[in-house]
Amino acid sequence: MKISITNIEKKYGESRALWPIDVELDSKFVSILGQSGCGKTTLLKILAGLEKPTNGEIKFDETVIYSSKLRKNVKPNKRNIAMVFQDFALWPHMTIYQNIAFGLKGMLPKSEIPARVEHVMRLVKMEGFEKRKPGELSGGQQQRVALARALATNPKLILFDEPLSALDAVLREKMQEEIMHIIHELDCQAIFVTHDQTEAITMSDQIIVMEAGRIAQVGSPQEIYHSPATPYVADFIGKVNWFNKGSRIVRPEGVSRHSQSGAIAKQAMILKSTFIGDRYLVQAEVEGKQWSFYENVPLEQGKQLEVFVDEKQIYQLEGLH
Amino acid sequence: MIMEGRRTFGLLLAIVVTFAIAPLLAILYYTFVSDGQLDFSKISRMFENDRMWHTLGNSLLLGLLVILGTTIIALPMALIRTKTSLFKFDWLDIILTIPFMTPPYIGSMGWILFMQNNGFLQQLIPGAAWMSDYFFSLFGMVMVMSLHLFPFLYLMLRNTLLRINGSFLDAARIFGRNPWRNWAKIVLPLLVSSYVLGVLLIFIKTLAEFGTPATFGSRIGFQVFTTEIHSYLSRWPVDISMATSLSLFLLSVCLIIWYFQNLIGRKNTYSVLSGKTQAGREVKEGWYIKLGSWLYVGIVLLLSIGVPYFSIIVTSLQKVRGDGLSAGNFDLASYQAVFTSGSAGLSAFLNSVVFSFITAIVTAVIGLFIALYIKKGETKKQQALDFFSLMPNIIPGIVFVVGLIMFWNSPWLPATIYNTKAMAVVTYCVLFLPYSVQYIKSSLSQLDQSIFQSAAIFGRNSWDVYRCIFIPLLMRGILAGMMMTFIISMRELVAGLLILPPSVETGATFIYSQFEQGNVGLGMAVAVITVAMTVVFMFLLDWLQKRGGRVGA
Amino acid sequence: MKKRGLKMIATVGALLTLALAGCGNGNSANKEVEASAEPKEINTLTVYSSGPDGLAANVQQAFEEKTGMKVEMFQGTTGKILSRLEAEKNNPVADVVVLASVASMDGMKESNQLQSFKDAENADQINSNWSDADGFYYGYSASALGIAYNTKNAKVAPIEWSDLSKSEWKDKINIPDPSLSGSAVDFIYGYTEAEKSGWDIIQSWKTNGLQVNGANKEALDSVITGDKDATISGVDYMAYKAKADGEPVEIVYPKSGTIVSPRAVGIMKDAKNVKGAQAYVNFLLSDEGQKLVTNAYLLPGNKEIQVKDRAALDEIPQLSVNWKGAETKQIDILTKFNDIFQ
């Protein structure tokens, strides 16, 4: 399914949450990445139909979902989408079964509902919890149920609103994998809002980086990492070493102590070496800036040495400065 | 850690028992024991009395009708304040609590003066005379009481709706098939539990209410428990044992209701209270919804504040009350009389201020220690103290007052505070301790556990820990509790009527006695001054909470 | 600055808590106990007095000026004073009691709560019908009960009690609640004792929409504000006072006779300050005290004193009533009255 967003903007009175946005999304797993307050959740809610944009048009394939010109606004429950909320939003007075079955009534024949609930509960590995109430489950379990509820209606698109931010690190990684796995198994797309760049890079096929109500860059994780469109994106994703001119960067992988052909030599003073498991992250001062690169052995603090930058890996930011 | 020692518990319990529980035991003793022997004749005399059953019927009926009345006012109001564009106007919430802060006897006097034959309404609109007959009935009494109590239910419902409004409702909008089903299956069930808790408290408050039944109820001949107890104690011929028996009965009724409330509360309070509220929200609505909402708010404000205050202020300004609203019939003589130094009204008002101020301080200190001891109420002892300190909230004030009179007049006491001003302060403290305990507890619950731990580790001694850590951190809750206690103490009536020593009046008893035998205009002037001060305090309280909220965030 | 203030408040609070807690344990002498012991000192006198508000205050002020004694005054209706005395039986504080009903006063004498003061100054000048022959109480003043009506709203002035059963007074009449107002009990008692058809007339008022309306002032207030047109058993001094303030009120005494309800003063048996109490009684009976009484538009106990802006005692047609031993009968009458009206 191709999601076309045309000229969508959102104002709250005088303050702007979104500047006019144009983007087409057709990948299976899309992440919207940005700091809090950048408008990513607003964009997601506009896609869900929970917020009404001030202007613009949204199409799912050729179907108009929202259009300010045509005065068309398909209701959230008619968009064939589902959503997983940051706080799970499981209705506390209903059992897990009732929570999941709620969206199925009127959609499936009554007799098929139990089987469907059982099916999605199995997908998220929560069989046997149907009779519990949300309050009796742990955070991770609630997350799974929220996912099951989203899967139950067989939606074309599932929207995730920072769903993993309430979980601890170990659980989060596990859930990342499971969500990816389930989405790729099923015939549906996912849009995943997060402020965690690693999460976005590992999970998605397409990333939208947002900054202050605007889209900073749209692209695959590789494009975003290697060819950031703006200094903001470059800084936000991964570690970055800046050259003096301010528009050229190199990632730490492009810097080493070993001379190669076509490498530029730079004088560096070691500030610190930090063990990060498989190797050391070395921080050094290069031409008055703080750089970082990887090394197999720790380097002595205060040591002066030469480092070499692989010219092929230098990237020039476009159209800036 | 600090505040957990056995000695602390003993001391706190001793205070609470002496002041809150002993009075209740005194009632029990007086009802069931005569001449050192168990004696059930007094209580059976009460049960044989038809009048008692009639009163019980009246009280319960009134409670149910007031539940209905407050629901009719509060539910639409809560919806309007959460679902329409009026959600932005937070100042409405302060205005809407004014009726609850208005002393009920003043509010109902205002209504009576407005609606009575040849009253202000008929002077303004002569054609509205037919309304008076309908008004002076149970209907009018329920209306006046509902208009007084609705803010309480409204605030509970509004807070619940706000919580539901977040992602719970968003989820329903995505997964639900139609809005009606969402409303019926998601919003309503989530709302019902807090509604039931709210109306049960309204019911208890109605049973405990004295001011309106004493003014409006006595006028239409509608007797309830509180007025019966009061009249057995203060009308000729006096029947104290009947008063204690009735108090005991009323106490039992309230405890039963409270038990049910607890039962329902435990079953239906959901630990999952996620539901983030949205930061920015805009509401698009038709002009008719907007107009209707404002109209509704306007009518409620007109009825709950406009009418009673109109009567109160006009009466306080009238020269000749028989001349009604005619021009030139107004001056500030009553206010001048109040502010003449040494006037009875002024000294009564100042007495109220002093008593309320001392009460606010004493309850804040005791409340602070109790709250620090209770913390999260994990041990049996903590729960017991929690229950005892909150008990005065469940038990009607008049029952406590009767108990306090019985207790402090016991012949075996070596010394008594009865007939001294301290009696007034002690009574107020007992009645209003729950407010400060609740406020301090809630601000305590916002503190992280680690603060206790770090205090325990770094504090040189426990006094320093309190002085430098807890008291400053809890100051906002303490001040809010003090403010609330002060406001409520300022308006307390029944305690003052029954326990004040000779030569001492409070603002409330002064106003009340002006209706009985003095100058009504003077009474109303004191009422206006009291209420004006209360409103100023309420805005201060609100400001304090907002400011504190920002600092705390 | 601010912090120090808070600390001070906290300290004061803690001290108060301790003081109160200590009091609860009852083993430490403290402020409150001393306060309750104060009346023992001969220089204060505790008076429980039923209305009128202004009179009690004026008497108190004049008495304090004259004797230098401090008066602790508790004001309330007769019912309230009686109930307060009952509640604090174990720990009586009142020295002097002033009631608006001689019947209740006689009841107190019978139940042995008063002490005799035969040698009161001016005792021989005071109306003997209102006072006790053994000096247990003196009727220092009286009010006559009439029909108080609103001159703006009433189309015709009422003349007789029975007028108020007529249709033009339908739903326009009220009476003070006898369980709150000593004078109203006196009225019902006296009227039904003296008039054979008394209860029938009361019944006919009830049929005509008679409302029972709180204490005396509350009943009169609803006539002043126009809610009702007339108060039965209206206390005359209140009506005269309202009239003097410009309110549209007038009072009439029916020709068939009405009740004069005496107000009496007596000394409690347990009085701690007997000397002061006697001085207080003497003062009330003195010409000066009696002048204050007439200033409040009441009938003075001493006939020699001129009344002020009101009908004198001999201008008021009276029903003959014997107040001695009336109290027990009054309870029956109150019950009967309540049965009719509730």
From TrEMBL, chain A:
Coiled coil: none annotated. Residues 3-237 form the ABC transporter domain. Keywords: ATP-binding, Nucleotide-binding, Transport. It comes from the Bacteria. InterPro entries: AAA+_ATPase, ABC_SmlMolc_Importer, ABC_transporter-like_ATP-bd, ABC_transporter-like_CS, P-loop_NTPase. One of its GO terms (molecular function) is ATP binding. Signal peptide: none annotated. PANTHER family: SPERMIDINE/PUTRESCINE IMPORT ATP-BINDING PROTEIN POTA (PTHR42781), SPERMIDINE_PUTRESCINE IMPORT ATP-BINDING PROTEIN POTA (PTHR42781:SF4). This is ABC transporter ATP-binding protein. The lineage of its organism: Bacteria, Bacillati, Bacillota, Bacilli, Bacillales.
Automatic annotation (TrEMBL), chain B:
It is found in: Cell inner membrane; Cell membrane. It is a multi-pass membrane protein. Gene3D superfamilies: MetI-like (1.10.3720.10). InterPro entries: MetI-like, MetI-like_sf. This is Iron ABC transporter permease. Belongs to the binding-protein-dependent transport system permease family. Its main location: membrane. Residues 56-261, 349-541 form the ABC transmembrane type-1 domain. The chain crosses the membrane at residues 12-32, 52-79, 91-114, 134-157, 183-204, 240-260, 294-317, 348-373, 385-408, 420-437, 477-500, 520-541. Keywords: Cell inner membrane, Cell membrane, Membrane, Transmembrane, Transmembrane helix, Transport.
UniProtKB/TrEMBL annotation, chain C:
Residues 1-21 form the signal peptide. Keywords: Signal. It comes from the Bacteria. CDD domains: PBP2_Fbp_like_2. The keyword Signal applies. This is Extracellular solute-binding protein. It comes from Viridibacillus soli.
